[in-house]
Specification:
There is one protein chain. The protein has 407 residues and is of the alpha/beta class. It folds into four domains: 5-19 and 172-314, 3-Layer(aba) Sandwich (Molybdenum Cofactor Biosythetic Enzyme, Chain A); 21-44 and 136-170, Molybdopterin biosynthesis moea protein, domain 2 (Alpha-Beta Complex), CATH 3.90.105; 49-132, Molybdopterin biosynthesis moeA protein, domain 3; 324-403, Beta-clip. It is 18% helix and 31% strand. A six-stranded mixed beta sheet has the order 7-4-6-5-9-8, with no helix packed on it. The protein has a six-stranded mixed beta sheet with strand order 16-13-17-21-20-18, sandwiched between helices. A hairpin with a 2-residue loop joins strand 20 (280-284) and strand 21. The longest helix is centred in the C-terminal third of the chain and has 19 residues, at 296-314. It is elongated, with a radius of gyration of 31 Å. It starts with a helix and ends in an 11-residue tail after the last strand. The structure holds adenosine monophosphate (AMP) and magnesium ion. Magnesium ion (MG) binds next to loops.
Length: 407
């Protein structure tokens, strides 16, 4: 019996736990999930400093039209120790330089007129103008980045600002990718009659990389038990094992029984979805094992809907399923009731409305319509027909092409 889509995905996610945390150099943490909160070791800024190139002054000295004597200069990077602004004086100061003693206001060059070692302030000044105060951004001991946050450039900047060149993030799974089939040859080898190139290894490795995992490409297992058992055993060294093909009803579809032979506990086989019905999922020593169907489109869609969320969960992400975008269907679609259908669509923005149209032939064998799609519409199992103009929910797989009206 086939499982429902929702049950199958919930079952998978229920079996997945996050990988242990590890310390990595700062730049290796981009896009990864912080495993422990980060507290500020000091205030940010660390000291009062100038927000402008200009003059450090005493606000009270600027009330009269008396020019101030320019007495010293403070470039960025210098120390203000021993420098102070005396009454009736101003110190030249550059952006980022520490505010000297006696100064309570910075007047930008644009608002001052310089002449003969003196400066005339042309504007009304208020105490505190153009000073970045110590701790106004972050205070010492404050939590600046919470555990579970995904590190983006701003977070990386914050960590760097605090002198942190290492960061503790959740691990990346090593994902073994095993292609199966007697008809397969490796990319670069001559292709004989009846043979096809093992392209799934590449789309799967690409998808694993895109999700943040580390692909371990195992090559090809042939359609016999010995070859499958040998390669599956190798694949079980990784954190996750994905196989493609050999999981349907064909005479030589031996993946399921070979999985059993190497001790993988099967948790489901077949899901009420199209494409991707023969997908199987199991566990061996706590490691998730996905048997995906072999048609390249089915392989990619089942990866997207089942494997990617699992990998993200292992990497500590809390949002593991792509958010749905709602769009109106351009044309009516007839489908089989009782199955979720993943429709390859092209979503465009027409005058502020998102319109989704089929990217073409939806046969599982048609790769070009997968290539043209920028989204996967998830059509509910309960429906037999979706009318033109109805709203559908879509996982955007190409975030760039999605909402730009010119595309
Ligand atoms: P199967 O499930 O073994 O019957 O395979 C289904 C279809 O996917 C067949 O047309 C296979 O030739 C094709 N296929 C299987 N493995 C791969 C692969 N690694 N790369 C590209 N196509 C594949
Ligand atoms: Mg096969």
């Amino acid at each position: 019996m086939a499982e429902t889509f929702e049950f199958a995905r919930a079952l998978i996610l229920g079996k997945i736990t996050s990988l242990p945390a590890e310390q990595v150099p700062l730049l290796e943490a981009v896009g990864r999930v912080l495993a422990a909160e980060v507290k500020a070791p000091w205030d940010l800024p660390r000291w009062d400093n100038s927000a402008m190139d200009g003059f450090a002054v005493r606000a009270e000295d600027c009330q009269s039209s008396q020019p101030l004597l320019i007495d010293g200069c403070l470039p960025a990077g210098c120390s203000a120790v021993g420098i102070s602004v005396s009454p009736g004086c101003a110190v030249r100061i550059m952006t980022g330089a520490p505010v000297p003693a006696g100064c309570d206001t910075i007047v930008p060059f644009e608002e001052a007129e310089e002449k003969d070692q003196h400066v005339l302030i042309k504007t009304h000044v208020r105490v505190g103008d153009h000073i970045r105060f110590r701790g106004e951004d972050v205070q010492q001991h404050q939590v600046v980045i919470a555990a579970g946050s995904v590190l983006r450039p701003a977070g990386i900047n914050m960590l760097a600002s605090f002198g942190m060149d290492n960061v503790t993030v959740f691990g990346r799974p090593k994902v073994a990718i095993l292609s199966t089939g007697d008809e397969l040859v490796e990319l670069g080898e001559p292709v004989g009659p009846g043979q096809i190139i093992n392209s799934n290894a590449y789309s799967l490795a690409a998808a694993v990389l895109e999700a943040g995992g580390e692909p371990v490409v195992l090559g090809i297992a042939r359609d016999n038990r010995e070859s499958l058992i040998e390669k599956l055993t190798e694949g079980l060294q990784a954190d996750v094992l994905i196989t493609s093909a050999g999981v349907s009803m064909g005479d030589l579809d031996l993946v399921r029984e070979s999985m059993e032979a190497v001790g993988v506990e099967r948790l489901f086989w077949k899901v009420d979805i199209k494409p991707g019905r023969p997908t199987a999922f199991g566990i061996k020593d706590g490691k998730p094992v996905f048997s995906l169907p072999g048609n390249p489109v089915s392989t990619m869609i089942t990866f997207e809907e089942f494997v990617r969320p699992a990998l993200l969960k292992m990497m500590g992400h809390s949002r593991v399923i792509r958010p749905f975008v709602k769009a109106n269907l351009q044309e009516s679609i007839t489908k089989k009731a009782g199955r979720v259908q993943f429709l390859r669509v092209r979503v465009v923005n027409k005058d502020g409305h998102l319109i989704a149209s089929s990217s073409g032939d939806q046969n599982t064998g048609i790769l070009s319509t997968m290539l043209r799609a920028n989204g996967i519409a998830v059509l509910p199992a309960s429906r037999e027909r979706i009318e033109a103009g109805e709203e559908v929910e879509i996982h955007m797989i190409d975030a760039v092409a999605d909402l730009d009206p010119s595309l």
